[in-house]
């Protein structure tokens, strides 16, 4: 949107009570009230409220106005991350009183799926978990929330336009609970795919509410994460497979197909199959992330299984999967190590070794780029022929 015309959003009538926050918003096209209710009656500093509201905006707006008083440091961080001018009152920076006590506390944005479980296994030490409760959309996630005793932030964000302009809202739980846990490191749980392959540096250098963003999960595709989850959390795979939004049942299908292939290829003895799985009816070219995984399923599970995830896979994909080495799907991109401390890097390497996951070679990286570009070219062809 930026560059077309100046787009501004205003947050006003902001109410911040213990464990409960709401704000009215208006950007000229969309208006309403955004709400957050925490499972604990905690006090949230205005700086953190501002960070949470800014996370709703992504990089969509030119100007963000908030009826809040925030510190100059927070104002600058929000402006750097959103690329927008922040209009607000500026006051003193109020430090978290626990800030000097510990410097290694980690918090995961927890949704309970396979990649989340893998991120837990990859992270050394104790990890706090915070989950967003979207109401009806989260019905399938509650079992994992309860199982892991995750802190909950109830929100009506899915009833707003914000998820259409950014995915940054998924960080809001960790932001609001930042002082409660005294979090040093936030874990997003993102995966390597054609849309995130250049995000490692961005994620690592993006300070959010004073938290360091750990990008270690970005070293693995969802295939690699599935490999770890199957070995570390085999007793809860069925629950993790189903821990998705009601509107994103295709993610459950993707996870089930990958667990089945991992089970068959490595003789894990898991009682999970996709025989009764109904096709998603998602067309090739609709989502590059799904196309990326469909190729892996095509290679190791065949076309019938692959088309349960994505239909109308190009015939030329058969030649691609036959000729191209797909080892990179299961291996770890070592570029993510650059943004970790030595001790953290060594801990991640131990988990990788335990799960027999190798690091990318140069050939693996080139094969990843080749597949990414191949998918992009087929998507262009689909647009040209009007699909």
Describe this structure in words.
- With 387 residues, the chain is of the alpha/beta class.
- It folds into two domains: 8-91, no CATH class; 106-384, no CATH class.
- Helices cover 40% and strands 16% of the residues.
- The chain is built from 16 helices and ten strands.
- The protein has a ten-stranded mixed β-sheet, with helices on both faces.
- Helix 1 runs parallel beside helix 2 (72-82), helix 3 packs across helix 9 (222-232) and helix 11 (249-266) packs antiparallel against helix 13.
- The chain is globular, with a radius of gyration of 21 Å.
- The protein starts with 7 loop residues before the first strand and ends with a helix.
Return the string of H and E elements: EEEHEHEEHEHEHHHEHEHHHHHHHH
The secondary-structure class comes to alpha/beta
- How many domains? The number is 2
Q: Indicate the radius of gyration in whole angstroms.
A: 21 Å
Mean pLDDT: 91
List keywords for this structure.
387 residues; alpha/beta; 16 helices; disordered C terminus
Explain briefly what this protein structure is.
This protein is an alpha/beta fold and 387 residues long.
Task: Give the helix/strand layout.
Blueprint: E1 8-17, E2 20-26, E3 31-38, H1 46-55, E4 63-71, H2 72-82, E5 85-91, E6 106-109, H3 114-122, E7 127-133, H4 142-147, E8 151-155, H5 162-165, H6 172-176, H7 178-181, E9 185-187, H8 200-204, E10 212-214, H9 222-232, H10 237-242, H11 249-266, H12 288-301, H13 303-309, H14 317-323, H15 342-354, H16 362-384
Parallel strand pairs: 1-4, 4-5, 6-7, 6-9, 7-8, 9-10
Antiparallel strand pairs: 1-2, 2-3, 3-8
């Amino acid at each position: 949107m930026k560059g077309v015309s100046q787009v501004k959003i205003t947050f006003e009538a902001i109410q911040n009570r213990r464990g409960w926050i709401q704000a009215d918003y208006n950007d000229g096209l969309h208006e309403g009230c955004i709400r957050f209710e925490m499972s604990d009656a905690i006090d949230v500093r205005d700086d953190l409220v501002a960070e949470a509201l800014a996370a709703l905006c992504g990089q969509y707006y030119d100007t963000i106005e908030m009826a809040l008083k925030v510190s100059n440091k927070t104002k600058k961080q929000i402006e750097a991350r959103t690329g927008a001018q922040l209009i607000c009152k500026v006051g003193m920076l109020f430090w978290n009183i626990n800030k000097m006590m510990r410097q290694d506390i980690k918090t995961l944005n927890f949704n309970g799926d396979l990649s989340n479980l893998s991120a837990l296994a990859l992270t050394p030490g104790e990890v706090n978990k915070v989950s967003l409760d979207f109401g009806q959309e989260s019905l399938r996630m509650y079992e994992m929330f309860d199982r892991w005793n995750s802190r909950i932030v109830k929100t009506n964000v899915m009833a707003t336009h914000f998820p259409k302009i950014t995915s940054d809202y998924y960080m809001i739980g960790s932001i609001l609970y930042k002082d409660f846990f005294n979090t040093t490191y936030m874990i997003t749980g993102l995966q390597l795919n054609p849309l995130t392959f250049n995000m490692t540096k961005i994620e690592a250098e993006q300070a959010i509410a004073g938290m360091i963003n750990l990008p270690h999960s970005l070293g693995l595709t969802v295939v690699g994460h599935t490999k770890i989850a199957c070995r570390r959390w085999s007793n809860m795979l069925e629950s993790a497979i189903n821990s998705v939004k009601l509107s994103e049942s295709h993610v459950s299908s993707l996870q089930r197909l990958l667990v089945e292939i991992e089970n068959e290829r490595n003789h894990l003895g898991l009682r999970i199959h996709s025989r009764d799985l109904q096709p998603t009816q998602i067309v090739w070219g609709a989502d590059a992330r799904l196309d990326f995984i469909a190729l892996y399923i095509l290679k190791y599970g065949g076309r019938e299984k692959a088309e349960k995830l994505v239909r109308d896979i190009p015939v030329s994909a058969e030649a691609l999967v036959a000729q191209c080495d797909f080892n990179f799907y299961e291996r770890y991109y070592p570029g993510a190590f650059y943004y970790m401390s030595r001790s953290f890097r060594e801990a991640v390497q131990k988990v990788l070794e335990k799960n027999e996951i190798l690091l990318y070679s140069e050939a693996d990286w080139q094969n990843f780029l080749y597949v990414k570009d191949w998918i992009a070219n087929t998507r262009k062809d689909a647009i040209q022929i009007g699909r």
